[in-house]
Amino acid sequence: MSFVDLSHSFEDGMPGFRMETEDGTVTEYTAEIEPFFTHDESESFYDGESAFEITEIRFQTSIGTYLDSPYHRYPSGRDIGDLDIDELVLPGVVVDARGLEPYEELGVEVVPSDRELTNRAVLFNFGWDEHWDTEQYRSYPYISDALIDRLIDENVGLVGVDTINADDHRNPSRPAHSRLLDEEIFIVENLTGLDALHGESFRLFAVPIKASQTAAMPIRVFAELD
């Protein structure tokens, strides 16, 4: 049994949600990781016989490698805490989408017609993880409307991308999020390491903490190779 880690490291200062106002002001939200109290600070609590660090993390939940629940798009949709484990551990299929240009849409022809996709995790390997933590990472290819149709018709269970967004961020209607999450097809963004899955049979694990009233959550997502 072997595993492939498909997650970026969650680090202090890592980039997250970016908001631009009409006047062009850009605000970028990052993760903050620091000791809540250190080993040295805690030693006196235990009469010098032991010491512990407690770590504090502050972040908005759409950061790093993360899972979107239907609640992310729809107020009445299920949130992260409502999702069952068996919905998030699925046989996987990786699709080779490498070689596209920034803002080029991915057509339906890339999906193999001879592969079973029903209740599968379908992962699109654009190869964009090589641009992680650079400005180029924010100009990326995305899945087309026709491909969204195909994924819904095939009744897939989860869609994953190694880009910052399954949608073109310039399109305010966000068709991938709007249509996939409406069908309870979950979305994982900011994957990495998908190159290692080509030619492999695998099962994907995309299980977050059981967080109520939460739209998205970073995950340690990995593939178990058969």
Automatic annotation (TrEMBL):
Matches recorded under InterPro entries: KFase/CYL (IPR007325), KFase_sf (IPR037175)
Organism domain of life: Archaea
Gene3D superfamilies per record: Putative cyclase
A Pfam family per the record: Cyclase
GO biological process: L-tryptophan catabolic process to kynurenine
Record GO terms (molecular function): arylformamidase activity
Protein name from the UniProt record: Cyclase family protein
Taxonomic placement: Archaea, Methanobacteriati, Methanobacteriota, Stenosarchaea group, Halobacteria
